[in-house]
Amino acid sequence: MSEEKITPTASVGTSTQNSENGKEMGRRGFFKWLSLGWIAFAGATGGFFTVMIRFLFPNVLFEPPQTLKIGFPNDYATNTVDIRYKKIFNIWVVRDEESIFALSTVCTHLGCTPNWLRTEGKFKCPCHGSGFRMTGINFEGPAPRPLERYKVSLSNDGQILVDKTKSFKWEKGEWENSESFLVV
C-alpha cells in the first residue's frame, strides 16, 4: 500500500483563494458589478428618454416679422434703390419717378441673393450671372422671370407698410395690381 499525503483544507481560506484565482466571485465583487450594471442601465435609459423627450419639442425658427414699417415716402430719393433692409428683411425698396415698391432679394434662378450695382444700375446675381433692372425685370443670365414684389401700402401714421405674406409675380400680370406699388 502506498501512502498518500493528505493535507487538511481550511474552509475559511478556500473562498479567498478561489476568488483570487477568478473561479468564484466574492460578495464585494458581486455588489461592485451589480452597481456598475445599474449605473449603465440608468445612463442608457436616461439617454433614451432624453432623446425621446427632445422629439416632443419642435425646432423653433425665429424669423423677422413679415409685416414691417419702412419709413415715410419722403425718406426715399427718386430713382434709387434702398439696400438697408436687404440683410434683415430680404427686401429692396425701390423708388422710381412714379411709385415705390418692395422687391424680393431672392434670385428667380436658384435662390441666391443678387447685389445692387449702383454704378451699373442693375441687380447682379453672383451665383450664375443673372441680371435684373432696377424695376426687377430680368434681362441677362439664366433667371427665368423677374423678381417678385411684395404688397406695399400706407399705414395709419403715414409710413410705408410692406407685407411679405403677399407677393406679386410679373409673369402673371400681378404687377399691375395697385397693392404691388405705392403711388407717390
List keywords for this structure.
184 residues, alpha+beta, Rieske Iron-sulfur Protein, 2 domains, seven-stranded antiparallel sheet, four-stranded antiparallel sheet, 11 strands, elongated
Describe this entry's structure for a reader:
The chain is α+β, with helices and mostly antiparallel strands. The chain folds into two domains: 44 residues; 117 residues, 3-layer Sandwich (Rieske Iron-sulfur Protein). The chain is 23% helix and 25% strand. It contains three helices and eleven strands, in the order ααββαβββββββββ. Strands 1, 2, 3, 4, 9, 10 and 11 form a seven-stranded antiparallel sheet that branches. A four-stranded antiparallel sheet has the order 5-6-7-8, with no helix packed on it. The longest helix is centred in the N-terminal third of the chain and has 28 residues. The protein is elongated and about 95 Å long. About 4% of the residues have low confidence.
Helix content: 10-25%
Low-confidence stretches: 13-19
Rough outline:
elongated
Instruction: Write down the domain tally.
Output: 2
Number of helices: 3
CATH class category label of the largest domain: Mainly Beta
Tell me the layout of helices and strands.
Blueprint: H1 11-21, H2 27-54, E1 67-69, E2 80-82, H3 86-89, E3 91-95, E4 99-104, E5 115-117, E6 122-124, E7 131-133, E8 138-140, E9 149-154, E10 160-168, E11 182-183
Antiparallel strand pairs: 1-10, 2-3, 3-4, 4-9, 4-11, 5-6, 6-7, 7-8, 9-10
